[in-house]
Amino acid sequence: xxxxxxxxxxxxxxxxxxxxxxxxxxxxxxxxxxxxxxxxxxxxxxxxxxxxxxxxxxxxxxxxxxxxxxxxxxxxxxxxxxxxxxxxxxxxxxxxxxxxxxxxxxxxxxx
Length: 111
Description:
By secondary structure, the protein is mainly α. The chain has six helices and no strands.
């Protein structure tokens, strides 16, 4: 990788590197556009959480019923997580992360 040294004078705007921002597009973005994108991002986040919960359960080789019993969470909650209707928060989110990284130790601690 090639390294290039640059001198930047903060008071001289011409010396500042040009970014990859489309200023005209940025200026044309309305509050409604931002809200719409935030809504899309929220849906994507729910789907990512659903995929993560499903992946953790499948890596453990458990059915939804077995998984709910092992981690002491209702079956309905597990289904809601995996269908993207709800996302795990707080302790449940931490537990899923631990189950993902150290499944044997986590399941042993839960028994």
